[in-house]
Design brief:
The protein has 307 residues and is of the alpha/beta class. The protein has one domain: Aldolase class I (TIM Barrel, Alpha-Beta Barrel). 46% of the residues lie in helices and 14% in strands. It is built from 12 helices and 8 strands. The chain has an 8-stranded parallel barrel with strand order 1-2-3-4-5-6-7-8, surrounded by 8 helices. Strand 7, helix 9 and strand 8 form a beta-alpha-beta unit.
């Protein structure tokens, strides 16, 4: 049977822009529910300066609370060498780096040029790999930038070459504001592979701003990509990308892949319940389409039982 793996980002990317800081215990509970649903790769937090993202200031405490389950990999985003060292001290053995293919977005996001970010990321990757830590690297705005518009694929290719030479093991191509379309996704991935990046080293990180995240994830799968980033209920967005509404909803992708006979290893009911728990924590409705369907179906069933 064909397979695809889900890389779940809701505890980090989904929560990082929420104004209300959630209790660490609630975050740990959400992660535990994701593990219970069968998710094997979960990006749980980021070791950034606490004043940058107060929501993630409890990174080390959260990592200490996480259940240790065979086969489950907890990931943390690290912005620089200091963040990596904090992650290593917490016991994290899987880290993610980030930078943008767009100069303007990168400057607004981290106040650095792409060149400066690359030098920092290369240092992080080198130190991490020397310690046996697994590294995946995000490249944002691959398919378009809210400030610059089209982003030449050559920008992405130059960054990939440097990241892979430094030791990154997987590259996640990001559609930061949901500007991509399936044909563009196929063209970019085909070009990236033709330039020497093995397709098994590629992941995609889609946003659903314009309703195309699922179609774009499927286009990537058709080109051989076997890891997709998702967030339960479609939580999340980028604070430095105007209009960047939620990530690709994990439930939407799991439902679609499974319906097509592609195994995800995920218990969809349990994943949907995790999404409802996240919605309760946030106190507002989440936008994922399967999430909304599942809630409605269960509400109707409950009403019928009490009628």
């Amino acid at each position: 049977m064909s397979t695809v793996s889900l890389y779940e980002v809701s505890p980090r990317d989904g929560l990082q822009n929420e104004a209300a800081v959630l209790p660490t215990e609630a975050k740990a509970e959400l992660i535990g529910r994701l593990v219970g649903a069968g998710v094997k790769d979960i990006e749980v937090t980021s070791f950034v300066r606490p004043r940058w993202i107060p929501q993630l200031s409890d990174a080390a405490e959260l990592v200490r609370m996480l259940p240790r389950v065979e086969g489950v990999r907890y990931w943390a985003l690290v912005p620089n060498r200091v963040g990596l060292e904090r992650a290593m001290e917490s016991g994290i053995r899987h880290v993610a780096t980030f930078l943008s293919a767009s100069e303007t977005h990168n400057t607004k996001n981290v106040n650095r040029t792409v060149r400066e970010s690359l030098a920092s990321v290369e240092e992080v990757i080198g130190v991490a790999r020397d310690d046996g830590i697994e590294v995946r690297s995000y490249i944002s705005t691959v398919f378009g930038c809210p400030y610059e518009g089209d982003v030449p694929v050559e920008n992405t290719l130059r960054i990939i070459e440097r990241l892979m030479a430094a030791g990154a093991q997987r590259i996640s191509l990001g559609d930061t504001t949901g500007m991509a379309n399936p044909r563009q996704v196929r063209e970019v991935i085909a070009r990236v592979v033709a330039e020497g990046l093995p397709v098994e080293s590629i992941a995609v990180h889609m946003h659903d701003t314009r309703g195309t995240a699922l179609a774009n994830a499927l286009a990537a799968y058709e080109l051989g990509v076997r890891q997709v980033d998702g967030s339960v209920g479609g939580m999340g967005g980028c604070p430095y990308a105007p209009g960047a509404s939620g990530n690709a909803a994990s439930e939407d992708m799991v439902f679609t892949f499974e319906a097509m006979g592609i195994d995800t290893g995920i218990d969809l009911e349990a994943l949907a319940e995790a999404g409802c728990y996240a919605e309760t924590l946030l106190g507002r409705e989440l936008p994922g389409r399967f999430h909304l369907y599942w809630k409605g179906a269960h509400a109707r069933a409950a009403k019928a039982r009490t009628a």
